[in-house]
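Structural prep section.
Before we set up the soaks we want a predicted structure of the protein with phosphoenolpyruvate in place, mainly to decide which crystallisation condition to try first. Input record follows.
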Amino acid sequence: MPRQKLHLLEDICGVITGSRDPRKTLDTIVELVAERFSIDVCSVYIFDAEQKYLVLTATVGLNRAAIGSVGMHISEGLSGLVLETMAPVFVRNPSTHPRYKYFKESGEEIYRTFLGLPLIYHQRNLGVLVVQTAEESAISEADIPVFSAITSQVAATVAYSGLLADLDKDRSNRSAQKPSVAGENAPRLIEKKPVLRGIAVSSGFAQGRAHYLAESIGFDQVKMEAAENHREQRIFLEKAFEAARHDIRQLHRAANDLTSQDASIIEANLMILEDAAFRRKICNRIDAGYTAAAALKQVVLQYLGHFNRMADPYLRQRGADIVDAGKQVLANLLAIGKTQQNAFSGDTIVIAADISAAELIRVRQPHLKGIILAKGGKTSHAVILAKSFEIPMIIGVKDVLDSIRENDRLIVDGTSGLIFRDPPPEICGEYDRLRVEKENSFRDLDRLRDVPALTRDGRFCRLGANVSLLSDLELVHKYGADHIGLYRTEFPFLVRGDFPTEEEQFDLYCKVIAAAAGKTVTIRTLDVGGDKFFSHLDYPKETNPYLGWRAVRVSLEREDIFRTQIRAVLRASACGPASLMFPMISTVEEVSTIKRIVKDEKSKLAEAGRPFDANIALGIMVEVPAAVRILHHLLTHVDFASIGTNDLTQYILAVDRNNEKVSALYNPLHPAVIATIREAATVCRRMGMPLSICGESASNPYCVVLYVAMGITRLSMNPASIPLIKHLMATLSMAEAQSALMAVADMEDAARISDHLKQVCSEKIGAYLR
Ligand code: PEP
Ligand code: MG
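Run finished without errors. Recording the tokens verbatim:
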């Protein structure tokens, strides 16, 4: 069976997101499975736990009239056997099996194979997925793993589709009259279902009210949708204009202390909103059949185009005013929160097109429970922060504007990527149960907090924490990190309007080192640029900021800023164990210059009689492919190296880590990424140099199996992931890790590699991987 058919899983996700009817969802899934695998029959039987009864709920291949009418007690039939044993059952010539049960309504007598798999979700039996073929050799036992992967997806659908609650309602009917006549007791399906799906990037469950960060919503999120009722759309538009004018006037009145420049921007916006010709053009587009939002978008973009073509820079700038004014109307049209509230009054799920790390720090508060982004990258710095704040986050939810309104009640499942709008009580109840279950199972890992991370055959690995803010230090101890492998120094300063002085930095680094309580802190110098900008540093407008003026390149050009930071870190190194690390190194020259500067600053401090650790270790981040290729040269100049897989992955694969359009291509399990890390590990081993990994992949169990096999003995990650990784190591021997590495080394794509590692990890820590 071709393995690429596993892409079916993505289609299934699409079906779940796209359909609002659970029955149709299941119908489409069985159709997809049957079609993709050229299977004659694919059926789903849902389990009524109270009655111990299985009911045929969806099928391709069997008589569809049997849906809802064919059913069996779990002590009957081969499907019953699957449920009883909670294991796959594969049988050739099923009619000869002692457990075979014949239903004349189904028409299944002609099939020569039977493969049944249990639908298990969170240790709960939900039903059985059955595939059958007329040709005896069409499927075999070897296909069980492929179908098992699909089954877990179907199980999640069943769990959240409302089918189970519906069965409860139908139970009384069915017990009065056992199914026998086609159609009579077909499960009635309730409408509520997961409305949206995105990419889960920060795990956990959250409930709260939707709140849009309006500033981040732009016209690129507005679709060119049609509307039939023009009159209604014109009324929406009129109201939105009126509301936008009201907001602006209020702002004008409230802001007595505006500079004349700010005041003129407000006046310009007001003039645009009062311009009858502007509104008339939008109404024309509505009359042409568009929604008010789509009509507004077209006219704003048309104006913008005109202004952009003007030679006069002042007039060109007016295009920005049009977009500004248009966004005010758009916010009202979409009924989204217009201004950033200082404090949320209740549990809140923030929704934005995208969010920067600085915005996230600004908006963070106890009532911020979850984050949904229309765009976003899997390892953006906002995602990294959300993980360290332990806030569930889902990105790449393209249809968020269409489906969620300000103040909607939401459940965000940051583990599966599902978002429920106004969920029914049974789904809320299910999530409460899941949350408690998850807390309990992870509490179980607390026992590992103070034990060292050892593989099953006793190899020691150091598990460190990545931290960004002083408050993260609490998590370091809570989750039992034995060092801080990466302290990102730029985060505390991202929201400031000026640059911190040496004393301010010294004070902060001392606090971090003190809070680490003897655990070594690897302090990384500023990594700005890319997706992190200091408002007061004059950044050039770059087409490719990740390939531009970033990290050490900024530091070496702004030597004043760099030297200030080096001095502050050196002085703080007198407070406790610390090391210094430099980001985005790509040449030996950079390292030589850095070392000269550090030496210089050490001499100055020594002359001034200031204490510092004269032997502070200096290390580099290996996150540019060039650094891997010249690693043997670089290592002769430094004391340690740490691979930043977030950037290394984006640079090897040419995939912007923040661009959701290409996020499916971003994968640390890509064979090229694995081979590159392996190459770096080999060089380090040969040169007797410690190598650590501090990118997000250090907390990915699949990757960790490979890193252990490569002999990498230091992993630094978001602190909450440490217990699970420690647990994985304790179940894994070096021989197992190496055989996994051998097995994947020649595989040609990430999907196969991921499949293989999934199998390895499922055996070890399956209960914790959902
Ligand atoms: C990395 O690139 O893997 C890394 C740890 O650095 P950052 O995520 O801050 O770019
Ligand atoms: Mg990096």
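Observations: The first helix runs from residue 8 to 18.
Flagged for discussion at group meeting.
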